[in-house]
Design a protein that fits this description.
The chain is α+β, with helices and mostly antiparallel strands and 209 residues long. The chain has one domain: 3-Layer(bba) Sandwich (Phenylalanyl-tRNA Synthetase, Chain B, domain 3). The chain is 32% helix and 17% strand. It is built from five helices and nine strands. The strands form three sheets. A four-stranded mixed sheet has the order 1-4-7-8, with no helix packed on it. A three-stranded antiparallel sheet has the order 2-9-3, with helices on one face. Strands 5-6 form a two-stranded antiparallel sheet. Strand 7 and strand 8 form a beta hairpin. Helix 3 packs across helix 4.
Length: 209
């Protein structure tokens, strides 16, 4: 079995973001799992009235502003999910792995990246995108990551806190995932660790072989 993906933090972003990450293998990603729809609906219902993660939403917006992005125009994925459910819409249903990560992201208000670990080339680095760097997005033509927070492997960038790449997207053929939480440095490490632990537990439960 391939080893865990190592995530290195570039010096240029170390004062901005303190990510959490993990690699999980032996998964069976499906279109749905027993009890998952009910859990997602309950989480969406709680999020419509909860203000518990409001400070995290503000911290993530500040993280975007530090790198020159307007978070009201280029929204963090976590906030986009929360806005969706507060409009009365359900959390999206893609597959069990993506659905669990969307749940955890909405609940924590921390942007996540979810990647098929076997589609990565080598380990990963979290850095600022370089001039001209782009990738083919999921349901998007091209994602520009120049001067933006991005994760990259030996083949180039493959994700950021707003949208991930088609190259490393998780499907029902995925058995090993790499999870990244793009946490601002102002969010306590213990809080990030709790979120990562809950994510691991839920992926293990709903993506069990």
């Amino acid at each position: 079995m391939a080893g865990d993906i190592v995530l290195t933090i570039a010096a240029e972003v170390a004062a901005i973001v303190r990510p959490g990450s993990c690699t999980l293998g032996g998964l069976a990603v499906r279109t749905n799992a027993d009890g998952l729809d009910e859990a997602l609906d309950a989480a969406a219902q709680r999020a419509r009235t909860s203000t518990e993660a409001a400070e995290v939403t503000t911290a993530v917006r500040s993280m975007y502003k530090v790198v020159g992005l307007d978070p009201t125009k280029v929204r963090p994925s976590s906030e986009a999910l929360l806005r969706r459910v507060r409009r009365g819409e359900p959390l999206p249903r893609i597959n069990t792995a993506v659905d669990v990560v969307n749940w955890c992201s909405m609940e924590s208000q921390l942007p996540f990246g979810l990647y098929d670990a076997d589609r990565l080339s080598g380990d990963a680095v979290l850095r600022l995108g370089r001039t001209g760097e782009t990738y083919a997005g999921i349901r998007k033509d091209v994602v520009n990551v120049a001067a933006r927070l991005t994760v990259a492997d030996d083949a180039g960038p493959f994700g950021n806190p707003t949208s991930d790449s088609a190259r490393t997207m998780v499907t029902t053929t995925t058995t090993r995932v790499f999870v990244v939480i793009f946490a601002p440095v102002t969010v306590p490490l213990a809080q990030v660790d709790r979120t990562l632990s809950a994510t691991r537990d839920r992926l293990g439960r709903y993506c069990a072989p």
